[in-house]
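User: Can you write out an input/output pair for a complex, sequences first and structure second?

Assistant: Here is one pair. Inputs:
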Amino acid sequence: MSEHETEMLLRDSLERLAERAPDGNEVRNALVRARHRRRQRFTLAAVAAAVVVVTAGVPVVLNVVSDVPADVQPAAGRPVLDYTPDWLPDGFTEQYRSAGPGHAPQVRRWLAGPATVELAAHSTADPEWAQTALRISALKDQVVVHGRVGMVTGETGTAATLTWMPDDGHVLTAEVDGMPDARKVAEQVADSVTAEPARIRGEARFGPLPAGLRELTTTVRGSNPDDGGTALDASSPAAPGKVAVRVTVGAGAPGLGGSVPVRVRGLPGAYLAASGPAEATVAVHLPSGRWLIASGRVPQEELVAVADGVQLDSAPDYGWLGQ
Amino acid sequence: MTTGFDDFVAERLDGLLRYATVLTDDPHLAQDIVQNVLLRAQERWAKIESPPTYVRRMITNEYLSWRRRAARRMVPSTHTVLDSLSPPEADPSTAYDERDEMLGLLATLPRKQRAAIVLRYYENHTDAEIAELLRCGVSTVRSQISRALGTLRAGVHPLPATLTTGVRE
């Protein structure tokens, strides 16, 4: 069969397959139901707000309005982490969540002093993890997690990584480091993992990115809600999995020796050119008192454009940090 | 905001379901994916700059990472099912059997290759547009399509032109 004939047959076959598409009634109904639920929530919230206003008076309303910075917009794309362990060793608190669109790994980390427990989820559509089933079957050191065969690697007594596939589309790793009986702990953590989602709502998200840059991940980290911060990573087409630009928003002030003034988000900011291993950096002190820092090996205008486009969220969810 | 979203759904839902069905080879999974994507899009509609592109990209991403796909994948259409969907054409037995065979081969492709094929031959996108949607390089797209076509060409066995009964020799 010629190339042309193959392509014609392919088009015909796909068109025929498209005819099997369901009608949209169920989807339309689901959208309507979701809208009704949202309206109900909004009504309840409005009633609650009205009660507060009646109780506390008009000055409360004015304070609330004046506390909201002009550039605050609610974050929309909030990554979701699909898995949660029901068991962790005593003393561990969650201090790190990271995820992103597409095949970005979903990572959650719990710490207790120098010891770490990390749960990560990867997609088998990611070439790096596509062959995991084969790797597991080829390894001698196998364990069973929820009835599925997994493997233990990197075992040193105080460190171990357990890898298993809860289904054909995902690979999970439970990595324990810096504590005795690491393998046993990793197995116990893995056995307790359920498909209960956890969200990431940081204090910033990317706005429109300059041509060529793509959102990679959003990360929230901190040892407690008061020292939480958000990091946004973007990649360039030249190296799709690598970080080309990173934006952080948090309390930490950058070192700006040798910088030059630059306007960022309509505010006086600073630009520090790349030097040796140090990447170029743009920083601005936000009206909220937080610092927004964009860094990467890209031109100054691009860094400023990224920083200008970042959307801030006045109500990040840092409540889980340190829990 | 809501009106814009309603208009979008009214105009494009059928097309989105057809696209998702071709992508997933599973009408039920297609419906799940389109529904989830639109529910999310509805929440943030005012912020979406180009809804048609955004929603199709989300559908594609969902397909590429959908964990239940393997368990729910359907057997490609049978001759009978296809016959019931549309009246026979000039030489129906040959055409349908070859389409069956092609759909069967498509079901064996890795997800990214299948997505690239669907975007090229069903959505008629350019390599650059496909690269943008799949978040990879143009050379990767070309290589995915080339490998997929190789697999499909190697697997398809044209039927004799005289065969009219639908029964393979």
